[in-house]
Write a structure and sequence with these properties.
The chain is mainly alpha-helical. About 65% of the residues lie in helices and about 0% in strands. The protein has 13 helices and no strands.
Length: about 220
Amino acid sequence: MMNFVTELNKSFYIHKNETVAEKQEAYLKHKFQLLGIKTPQRKELQKPFLSKNSRPKKENLSDITIKLWNLPYREFQYVAIDLNRLYLRQMQEKDIDIFECMITSKSWWDSVDLIAVNLVGHYFKLFPQNKFEIIDKWMSSENIWLHRTCLIFQLKYKQETDLELLAQIIEPLIGTKEFFINKAIGWILREYSRTNPEWVVEFVDKHELSNLSRKEALRLID
């Protein structure tokens, strides 16, 4: 298990590019250190480590995820997310704990959105019996990244979107000044407008959304 993380670290580090890293760090508001490995190159570098014969066993996934999350460079958090996506069919009820840890640690939109849509969204489809309790817990917290996750986990649900739940999540957040929440409200409504524009128009008309949320929600609607 440690060999996986150590060898991955070595492989990435020798491709460090400080010029690229400076631009990437500026894009992420200097919240994280980066090695300067662009996404296509990172995907190639991680490929042999995530291959079927090399990736860790499912029982070691949480521990490796934490080790990758604790490494100083942002690229390793991306690897951790990609690694977890390989185990969607083996997802277990307890996995929500590690997803929550990933959302609330080293939090920023670049990681949270991937976790929300690709991991949490899939989790709630597999374990719908846990959905309302977890969402209630997250919405009762003061963590904006948990709130954003609640807003956008249904981003790919299309016709399966739970509209009653979506409204219940959005309504308590209306009036916030938090950019990442208002943006997410608009984003989920805009995406759902591809499936049911009438519902989105009606929802927007009935609620006093922020200008940002309203603009984003109606962006695709004539």
